[in-house]
Structures are given as structure tokens and as C-alpha cells.
């Protein structure tokens, strides 16, 4: 897919907006230059884009912050359906008449359905071209207001969900409307792994802040919650405000930007997918950074899918890795530096 995306970007006019998700990473390398603007909801992509794109923006796809319109929007579709629908819905507002929305995707990405949705939204005939295993859909704006809105119509709104115990979340965040079973299993270990009052906690890959909120109900601690996803950061900040947690919510790439040795306790439920692909290196990056962030006397708690060999991986960075419990396909591990 990178070859098809590269082809579209190289021929793109300067007035092009590239919507860059995790799928775009292979192109964001030294030596590549993109003359247009880049918009992403991922902190790592925004960092890689510095010096490569003419302008880069990190937010939860708030197009209005870009303060301009475009002749072309190029987008390799994301894994999150709500994000794709939101971008298709927004396109007519930020493409002038005659402007083009270019959607790219592999067969398993849902590109055929998205091509139909784009045609519905833009008021055009469905356009879909096959390029080997990849597809492109190029839709031209006929009317500035577009046609019928599709999918989730209130993407940007944070909402308090009863199924989350009243915590705030939103579309665009993986598992946004449910409590992750792995995180719930980890949170149950707080009864025996409760840190001292005032301890400094790092919630690595915080999502909407579930683990921090659960731990905060058991004592007074200082939290640093961090995530790569803009939607997650918005939701977590709102939950910190409404629940009165002490601490900060900040973007980072698996904790890489945080200072060394700041944590008495690190909490982590790491992702193991990057877009549509399984990326084995993600767990290693979270392990490496968690060990770097931890004080020498501190503890790290990880929850992972049972098929991930965390003992083998963890012993590269920690001297002690212990399985605490296993349930419903998840394992919780305690890791210590000494």
C-alpha cells in the first residue's frame, strides 16, 4: 500500500492535505518530502512528519484548526470506522468545489464500503479502482455542502457512558465504549499491589484513563497518564478533571518523551496491533520505556494477551518478572528492576 500512497503524494499539488494514520509510517523517513499539509491523530506520526511535510498538525481530526481549504485530501483509511466516517463527513467543508477526496485501502480495510459511503456523502457516483491488492477511490466535490452525512454524526463529543461507570470517552479511541477485560483484570490486582500514599504513577498507554481512575479510588497518588492517540488524551483529561485526580495527561510515543526514573509504579496494557497489522516490536518498546521510567525500587504491572511471551521479553529490561494471574486469555505480570 505504501507504493500507491507514495504515488498519490508525489503527484499531489501543494494544496493537498494528507490524513496520516499509523499506516503512513513507512513513508515518513529521511529523504522524503511532502509539499502539502499533514494531519494526524497520532503523536508518533506528527513527530516523524516534522521537517517532511510543509505543515503538520496533531489533533483529533479537528480540520478547523488548519485554517484553510484544500484542492485534494489523500487518506489511506484507518482501522477505526468512526474515524473514516468522520473524515468523509468533513471533506466537503474543507475541499473547494471541484476538489477531490482520495481514499486508499487494501481489500480487508473496508475500502469498498468506504468508497460507497464517500459517494453518498459527496453526491457522486461510486468510484473504485483496483491496483493489485490495493484499491483507490477518487471522488470530486460537485456541491460544496455535499450530500447525506454518514455513520457517527457526533464524532467530536466526549460523552459520559454508564457502561464505563460514568467515565468519559468518545469514538476514535480503540475500545472507546467498553471496559477492556485485560485492564479490568489488572485493576483487580490493586488490592495486593497498592503503592504508598503520594506515590508517583505512570499510566503508559492510558486510553481514557481507566487504570488511573481505578487506582485513584484507593488512595492519593500523583499520576502521569500518556498516550499516542489524540482522542484518548482528550477523554483522559476530562476524566482526570471530573474525578479530581492529581497529575498530568500528556502525549508520548510509548513513553519515550518522559523523564527517566520518575515512577514508583508503572501501569501498562500495551497495544499489539499497529493499524491492521500485528507489530511484535510494540510490546518491546513499552517494556523498554517502562523500565527507563521506573525508580530502582519501583514496580511495573503489565497486562497482555496470553500468547505474548512477556517473561522472555521482560527479562531483557528487568531482573525479575513474575506472573501474577491469568484469566480469560489475559496475563498480569509484576516486573522489578532488582
TrEMBL record:
Q: Which GO terms describe its molecular function?
A: methyltransferase activity
InterPro entries, A to Z? RsmC/RlmG, SAM-dependent_MTases_sf, Small_mtfrase_dom
Keyword Disulfide bond (UniProt): no
Q: Which keywords does this Swiss-Prot/TrEMBL entry list?
A: Methyltransferase, S-adenosyl-L-methionine, Transferase
Gene3D superfamilies per record:
Vaccinia Virus protein VP39
Query: Residue ranges of the Methyltransferase small domain?
Result: 167-334
Pfam families reported in the protein's UniProt record = MTS
* GO BP annotations, alphabetical order: methylation
Protein's UniProt name: Methyltransferase
Query: Which organism does this sequence originate in?
Result: Microbulbifer spongiae
Organism taxonomic ancestry: Bacteria, Pseudomonadati, Pseudomonadota, Gammaproteobacteria, Cellvibrionales
